[in-house]
Amino acid sequence: MSTIEESDLSEKSRKLWLKAIAALEQRNADFAINLLEALVKEEPDFLTGRKALRRAQIQKAKAGGGKKKFFGGLGAFNAKALAKKSWHDALADVEKELASDPFNVKVNNALFDLAVANEQYDLAEFALETIKEGHPEDTKSLHKLAQFHLDQDNPDKASEIFGAIVKRDPSDLVAVKGEKDATARASMRQGNWESKGGFRDMLKNEDEAKSLENASRAGMTKEQIRAQLTNGLGEYGENQNDLALVRKIGGFYEKLEEWQNAHQFYAWAHHLSEGDSALERKASQMEERASDEMIASLQAELEKLSGEEAAAKQAELDELVGARSARLTEAARERVERNPTDPQLRFELGQHLYNSGEFTEAIPHLQRARNNPHIRTRSILMLGRCYDAKGMLDMAQSQLEEALSELVTMDNTKKEVLYALAMVAEKNGDKDKYLGSLKEIYEADYGYLDVAHRVESSYAG
C-alpha cells in the first residue's frame, strides 16, 4: 500500500483538487475544507490532499481563536477500536476527529499508529510532524518522531529532532545520546560504510578507524576538522574518483567556511555521482557563499575609499553582483528545466529572479512552489515581497497575513514575515498594523534588525 500522486487522480478527483487549491489561494478555508474532505474520502491515499486539508483546518482553527488541545474534546473517540476497522474506514474516523482539533495529540498519535500498521510511512511522519508544529513542547512525541526516523533509516532527520529536544531540555540524556548516535550513523551512511559490512571492515587498522569515528562526531574544533581534512586530502591524492571521499572533503571545507574549495569538491562529487541533484544544489550553495564573501570583502574595501578610487571599486562591485545574480539565476533556470515538477527548484528560481529584480517572472514560480507544504510559508513570503516591489501593496499585505496565519512559534521565518508586513503597512499608512507587527518581534527579539529603534521612537514626543 502506498500514497498516490496528483497524476494518479481520477478526472473527478482532479477537478476537486484544482478547485480546492483555488479556494486555499483565495483564503476561503471553509470551502477548501469541504472540497478536500470530499477529495480524501474519494482518494484516501492522496497524502498531498490530506496535508492541504490539515493546513486549511489549522487556518480555520486559528481564525476562530480556538486553543490547541492535548486530549480534550474527543467525545466517543476510541483509538483501540480503529484496529477492528478497515484501513479507509479507520482513516475516515480519525479525520472526523481532527476536523475540529487538527493538532490533537491523542488523535494524531492514533493516526501515526494506524499508518504504521498499514505501511503508510509518509502519512505516519506527517501525523507526528503535525504534533510537533502544534505542540513543540511535547518532547514525548518528539522522541517518538526521532525513533521513527531511525527506524526508517533517516538518521539525519532523527539527529535534527533529538537536537530540538536537547535545545528545549538540555538535561534529557536520552536525547543527548540519541543526537550523538544519529549524527554518527548519518556520517557512516554518507561514507557508504554500512553497506560494506561495517565501516571498520573497510579500514586497514584501528588507528584509521578511530580517525574516521572522530570525523563523525559533532562539535569538532577547527583544528580537529583541519586534521581530518589533511588526512582526507592524503587519501584523495591516491584516488581522486572516490565519491564518498570527495564529498567528505567538500564537507570539511564547508565546516571551515572555505566556500570556494567546498564548491570545487562538491562540484567534482556531483560529476562523479553522474547527476545527483542534492550534490548539484550543494555545489551551487557553496558557489553562492563564495560570491557573498567576495562581495562583502569589496564592500569593506569600498568604505575605506573616496573619490575616483571609490567609484572604480563601486563599478567592480556592481559588475560582480550583476554577474553573480545572472549566473545563479541561469543555473536555477536550468535545474527547473530538467526537473519542472520539483517545487524546491521552483522556489530557488523564484528567489533568484526576485534578487535580480525580475519580480513579474518570479511570481508564477513561487505560486507553484507554495503548493508544497514544506516550503509553503517561505514561498508566500517571497510572493509578498514580489507584490510589494511591484507596488501592489494590498496583495502584498494579503500574502504576508496568510503566511503569518500559518506560523505558530516565533522563529526567524515569523520574524521575517512580521517585519515585511510592518514595512508594507507603513507604506499603506496603517500605523496600528505597522507598530503591532514590530512589537511582536520586539517582545521576542530585542536585537532584530532596527525593530527596537522603530518601536521605541514611536513613543518619543
TrEMBL record:
<protein>
    <submittedName>
        <fullName>Tetratricopeptide repeat protein</fullName>
    </submittedName>
</protein>
<dbReference type="InterPro" id="IPR011990">
    <property type="entry name" value="TPR-like_helical_dom_sf"/>
</dbReference>
<dbReference type="Pfam" id="PF13181">
    <property type="entry name" value="TPR_8"/>
</dbReference>
<dbReference type="Pfam" id="PF13432">
    <property type="entry name" value="TPR_16"/>
</dbReference>
<dbReference type="Pfam" id="PF14559">
    <property type="entry name" value="TPR_19"/>
</dbReference>
<dbReference type="InterPro" id="IPR019734">
    <property type="entry name" value="TPR_rpt"/>
</dbReference>
